[in-house]
Amino acid sequence: MAQTPDFFERLVVQLLLKMGYGGPFEDAGIVTRSTGDGGIDGIIKEDKLGFSQIYIQAKRWNPDTTVNRPEIQRFSGALRDEGASRGLFITTAQFSNGAKQSAERQHIVLVDGETLTKLMIEYDIGVSVSQTYSVKKLDSDFFSDD
Q: Is residue 62 within 8 Å of 30, Cβ to Cβ?
């Protein structure tokens, strides 16, 4: 939460690439400019020519804040302006029921702060492994006469 909104937008694009979205080419994930972006904070290109793209809205808001329907509707308008068929709204906050219903009708995937945190841990974004353990069991095949 102490990082800038620009940092958060880069984090989100990096997470999506690490999750396997985008292709194995340069500029598969783009963070748009911070001002005048038209409501689109990032774009994931799923093919080299850009025929299939995921548009991203990334909001670094207080975790106690609730994203409501009007924010989803604004993002939906930004998607329509881009001619996009799908989008991802990802935030450090939470979503109201109205926002969830609106997003579902408009094919917008929502990721709240709790889910974002779990994904960051799962895909090693902003975390590192400090210790691992091996659990051993007896290999009975090794001791068989066959």
A: no
Q: How far apart are CA 103 and CA 87, in angstroms?
A: 9
Q: How far apart are CA 91 and CA 31, in angstroms?
A: 15
pTM confidence score: 0.85
Question: What whole-number distance in Å separates Cα of residue 106 and Cα of residue 63?
Answer: 24
Query: What are the CA-CA distances from residue 5 to residues 25, 35, 50, 76, 106 (Å)?
Result: 26, 11, 26, 21, 25
81, 36, 83, 90: which is closest to 60 by C-alpha? Answer: 90
Q: The tokens of 93 are what?
A: 């906050």
Residue 22's alpha-carbon distances to 49, 50, 76, in angstroms, are: 12, 10, 21
| pLDDT of amino acid 36 | 64
pLDDT tens digit sequence for 1-40: 899 999 999 999 999 999 999 988 888 999 997 666 678 9
Cβ pair 70, 43 in contact under 8 A = no
